[in-house]
Amino acid sequence: MIACSITETKAFMNRLLLSDYFDAFFLSEADFVTFTTFHIDGTLQKGYYSSEELWEQQMEHQTGVTWKQVRPFCLELIRGTHTPLEFKIVLRLSPANVEKLLRQNALPLTPEDIHGLFLNLHFQNGALTCITGASLAVFSLDKSLDHLWDATVRKFLKEFI
Description:
- The protein has helices spanning about 10-20, 50-55, 65-80, 95-105, 145-155, and strands at about 5, 25-35, 35-40, 65, 85-95, 115-125, 125-135.
- It is of the alpha+beta class.
């Protein structure tokens, strides 16, 4: 786990909210504090869609929402003349990208062994921080995945930290 201070806040927020840079992530949860607090839990409510819509949008096996799906709503929550008082966004690397990361680095884990690789974004008092996290579904004393994820995030965010 590492904590990074985002020094280029404006550029980071533009990338987060106005581009597809973070679209490889799912949203675990988000809280936005503006004139009131808004909470998004990140769970895909499949009952909202018909089975045809789920199939057409390739969401039939999806349990959570992607950042791409909720990004416009999050942008709308904080858009305006006032800066949010605070926000917390927890992003989780998509299963396909977890599998790719494991394969490229020959780690002795399967995608099923990993509960999630997380980016925790927290904005408060004008400061934006990003904290990494790795959660395993199996017990292991090996920290190779944690170190790999930390290095991957540092590289991913290098222009902002």
